Amino acid sequence: MSHLSERAERTPPSGIRRFFEIAEETDDVISLGVGEPDFSAPWPARKAAIDALERGQTSYTANRGRRDLREAIASHATRYGHEYDPDEEVLVTTGVSEGMDLAMRALVDPGDVVAVVEPAYISYGPDATFSGGSVLPVPTAASDQFRLTRDALERAGAEEADLLVYCYPNNPTGAVMSQADYEEVAAFAREHDLFVLADEVYAALSYDGGHATVATEPGMRERTVVFDGFSKAYAMTGLRLGYAMGPAPVIDAMNRIHQYTMLSAPTTAQAAAIEALESCDDAVAEMCRQYDRRRRFVLSRFREMGLDCFEAKGAFYVFPAVPGDDEAFAEGLLREAGVAVVPGRVFGDGGEGHVRVSYARSLSELREATDRIESFLAEWRA
Amino acid sequence: MDDRRRVLDLLCEDARYTAEDVARQLDLTPEEVEAHVSSLEDEGVVHGYTAVVDWASLDDDVVEAMVELNVELDRETGYEDISKRIAKFSEVTAFRLVSGDYDFAVDVRADSMNDVSRFVSEEIAPIPEVTQTVTHYVMETYKAAGIEFEDGETDDRLSYSP
Question: pTM, whole model, 2 decimals?
Answer without folding.
Answer: 0.92
